[in-house]
Amino acid sequence: MADKKEKKRGMLDGFKSVLYGMAGHDMARYALKTRGSMEHLFILITMGDLLGIPILPPYYSLRLLPYVVPQISTWKRRMLREKDLTDALA
Amino acid sequence: MSMREVFEQNPDRRYIMFGGKGGLGKTTFSAATAYWLAKQGKKVLVFSVDPQASLSDIFKQDIFGKGPVEIMPNLFAQEIDADRRIKDYQEEIRQKIRDMYGMTEIPEEIENYIQAAAAEPAMEESAIFDEVVDIVGSANYDYYIYDLVPLGHALYYLSMASVYDQWIDKITGLRTEMEEYAKVAAVMQRDKESEEDQILKELQFIKHRINVSSGILTDKLKTAFFFVVVPEEMIILDTKKAAGLFAKFDVPLAGYIVNRVIPPELAGQNIPVYLRNRMEMQTRYLKEIDQVFSGEVLARIPEFERDITGLPMIERMAQVMFGGL
User: Fold this and answer.
1) Helices in chain A by DSSP H: which ranges?
2) What are the extents of the domains in chain A?
3) Which domain holds residue B98?
4) Partner A, chain B 281-300, Cβ-Cβ below 8 Å
């Protein structure tokens, strides 16, 4: 009895995964990609000075610096690779 | 209305500011008001938000960067050391980075940014602005007296608060939206709760601090802002302009104090023509001040025979301003 239940759940999980693969995965990927772009946009508007674009008074932007340290190098690469800064939003 | 009545009728106004062009007597009035309030049994802190502060000079005591210093019973004075605050703050950021990522050294790129940020011209003002939040947030005193910077800077200070406020609103909005995308992805991938966004928390903290500061500057119940003028044409024109701008930022104007008035009793004495001419000029502009700022002129303070430094002179000034202690 317990075995049957287990099997059923296994099937259900498998089915959920297939469904996710068919429908959800792309959406999730899209959501994450959008979030990634926004992350870069966010760093641009707070840490713009790093690229030579001073955007806000720096006192409070320093407060945010520790949180974006890991993203700084990928962000700079991305900003410099994009043909146009607005591409980063796409 | 007199200065004394303004204070007696509005006991809730705990944040007192004197504004005006440089050298007209803002620090003098700040110190004298602090002295009078302290003599009334109120605990008072007078502090300077000017990088070129002069409270040390007027109290004849070096208080720069020493925190609140007791000048006499109930009267405390403070001059903010912006440079040191910036240095401490930079170190705090470095330490946070080291702790968060277990680094022993800050990456060069990041270090450069920290250095460059501190060299920005707005840094000093922002640092002082931020320290003021600590000072008034401590709630240790009955009265806080701001010895303000000259008008232009004070306006910059005020506009900075509103710009900051709007800017923070915008990026907090962006950050919240980012949270939503992360949540959507997490739900689809059937992850547990997405991580709490530390940056969003930090932004809300910053927003809170800015709101405390600009909230005080525009609080009609708790704040009294006095303009200092002298009977001269240029000063009257500039003050009119500045008063208009301050009104735009919703700063509650409590009234005007006219400083450096040549004592009228001199007219009856044998005085040189030079002085008589100056007195005539002042009479003309005093009339104009009474017209332009009609009903809002609280006091006319005479020109003293010597400069106002040290407690005995501050006491004399307080007597003139408030009519007896």
Assistant:
1) 2-19, 25-47, 58-68, 72-81
2) 2-89
3) 88-122
4) none
